[in-house]
């Protein structure tokens, strides 16, 4: 488990920047999915249930002004940055594992 910081800037405005921290990369990827689900709930407030596929989730990630992860590297005691493509790959792996259970 590597401490992971998720940096998010949903809009062009720098004031929209925020961050969340997680105990692991996997928890962080679940956090990105939850962020998208919250977005869907805001956009569809009267929908009793919300479903989506991975391509819609990835489109959401791509539409964010900026999204990256800083993952703690125990060997160096530093945080390594990772971009949107890395995040999408990790989400894909996580969801594939969940579907296989």
The averaged pLDDT comes out at 95
Low-confidence stretches at least 5 residues in length (pLDDT < 50)? none
What's the overall geometry?
Answer: globular
SSE string:
EEHHEEH
Number of helices: 3
From the N-terminal CA to the C-terminal CA, the straight-line distance is: 21 Å
Count the strands?
4
* Largest sheet, strands/sense/barrel: 4 strands, antiparallel
What percentage of the residues does DSSP assign to strands (E)? 15-25%
| Class computed from helices, strands and strand pairing | alpha+beta
Please give the order of strands in the largest beta sheet: 2-1-3-4
Specify Rg, calculated over alpha carbons.
Answer: 14 Å
The proportion of residues forming helix, as a percent range, comes to 40-55%
Summarize the structure.
Helices cover 46% and strands 24% of the residues.
């Amino acid at each position: 488990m590597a401490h992971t910081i998720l940096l998010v800037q949903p809009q062009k405005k720098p004031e929209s920047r925020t961050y969340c921290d997680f105990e692991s990369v996997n928890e962080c990827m679940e956090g990105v999915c939850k962020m998208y689900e919250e977005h869907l709930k805001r956009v569809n407030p009267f929908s009793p249930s919300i479903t989506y596929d991975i391509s819609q989730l990835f489109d959401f990630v791509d539409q964010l002004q900026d999204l990256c992860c800083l993952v703690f590297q125990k060997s160096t005691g530093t945080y390594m940055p990772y971009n949107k493509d890395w995040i999408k790959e990790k989400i894909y792996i996580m969801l594939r594992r969940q579907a296989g259970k």
